[in-house]
Amino acid sequence: MKSKLKSVLFASMAFFLAIALIRFPDQSLEASIRGLSMWWEIVFPSLLPFFVTAELLIGFGVVRFIGILCEPIMRPIFKVPGVGSFVWAMGMASGYPSGAKLTARLREERHLTQIEAERLVSFTNASNPLFIFGAVSVGFFHDPKLGVLLAVSHYAGNALVGVCMRFYGANDSSTLEREQPTFSLKKAFQALHETRMADGRPFGKMFGDAVLSSIQTLLVIGGFIILFSVFNKLLFMIGITPIIAAGLSFFFQLAQLSPELAIPFISGLFEITLGSQMTSKIEQIDLLQQVLVVSFILAFNGFSVQAQVASILAETDIRFTPYFFARVLHGCLAVVLSWLLFKPLYLDRDIAGTYEEPVFSEGESSSLLFDWFLWVGHIGPTVTLCSLFLAIIILYQRIEEKK
């Protein structure tokens, strides 16, 4: 009975989407182009180098090397192997869904148990600093100082999620079979050499596999970005978003937040960039309220990113539910941290800045980040085209070799 209800639900959703697309073709096309542009200009060129590099580092044994060195740190704090430090760092540097991609890859390599992978994926998907400082703080709010507050709340909240999730699956026996973590440089080098020898692929083959795997993942990510951009627009066009916002406004008022933030908040639950941009455009309300909403949106990841993560995890035995729970927890922690740190990290620093400006001010560094963000968007299409062309060449060569 449950499976039949699920079938009816999925069929109804697909039917609704088809009817809405027919009813609002112009708006759907506009939203689709917006999602495609975001993937084409920003997501693909910014994530591809990280994905390819990560695949090469795994193949060459560098990840195992890092894992053994970081085991005495990661195991006591987060109850995950030392390789989790690599995933965590790459996830923060490149942004979501890199953490899920790398966690799934390490699970396939048997560096993680199922429970450890579920713990790790819960706190290694984060927004990258370029987006927080360049796009949100400078691009949307036109306030470079806001980036520090958003970044500290976001990354500290993610770390706290990792500490909380260490208690998830506490009775899992598979984590108890591992050796007691000890720092050993010799053992780390030995593991690096053994991993490279066990892989056995020549560099050309390894590089080609890394490019193809990364592009395949990015194509799936692009599909989700476009789909949720259209879905978000259609919900607004048929009036569902305003209805939900009207009900949500009551809870916002209880929390002493402006009801005008309800629609941007709902949009942010689906797509982070749009929600953050809409929140920044709400005028004549307290900046702290906008910061709290944006902090939750960044931490929640949005259903678009969550769908990307779900598709990546579906190829493994890693369950999606712990990740979703961690996103809600991260959102709540980020809001609390933003509220607590708003005065010391924003108001007090703003007052201090009126008396003394450093030689290299935060405004200059944030401006450079915003310029870098614009530059990535400018060369993004060229990088995407060249990468897709390279993937076609690699595929063609491999087809010819099999003949």
Automatic annotation (TrEMBL):
<feature type="transmembrane region" description="Helical">
    <location>
        <begin position="206"/>
        <end position="228"/>
    </location>
</feature>
<keyword id="KW-1133">Transmembrane helix</keyword>
<dbReference type="InterPro" id="IPR014226">
    <property type="entry name" value="Spore_IM_YlbJ"/>
</dbReference>
<feature type="domain" description="Nucleoside transporter/FeoB GTPase Gate">
    <location>
        <begin position="43"/>
        <end position="138"/>
    </location>
</feature>
<feature type="transmembrane region" description="Helical">
    <location>
        <begin position="291"/>
        <end position="312"/>
    </location>
</feature>
<feature type="domain" description="Nucleoside transporter/FeoB GTPase Gate">
    <location>
        <begin position="218"/>
        <end position="314"/>
    </location>
</feature>
<feature type="transmembrane region" description="Helical">
    <location>
        <begin position="324"/>
        <end position="342"/>
    </location>
</feature>
<feature type="transmembrane region" description="Helical">
    <location>
        <begin position="47"/>
        <end position="69"/>
    </location>
</feature>
<keyword id="KW-0812">Transmembrane</keyword>
<keyword id="KW-0472">Membrane</keyword>
<feature type="transmembrane region" description="Helical">
    <location>
        <begin position="120"/>
        <end position="141"/>
    </location>
</feature>
<dbReference type="InterPro" id="IPR011642">
    <property type="entry name" value="Gate_dom"/>
</dbReference>
<protein>
    <submittedName>
        <fullName>Sporulation integral membrane protein YlbJ</fullName>
    </submittedName>
</protein>
<dbReference type="Pfam" id="PF07670">
    <property type="entry name" value="Gate"/>
</dbReference>
<feature type="transmembrane region" description="Helical">
    <location>
        <begin position="372"/>
        <end position="396"/>
    </location>
</feature>
<feature type="transmembrane region" description="Helical">
    <location>
        <begin position="234"/>
        <end position="254"/>
    </location>
</feature>
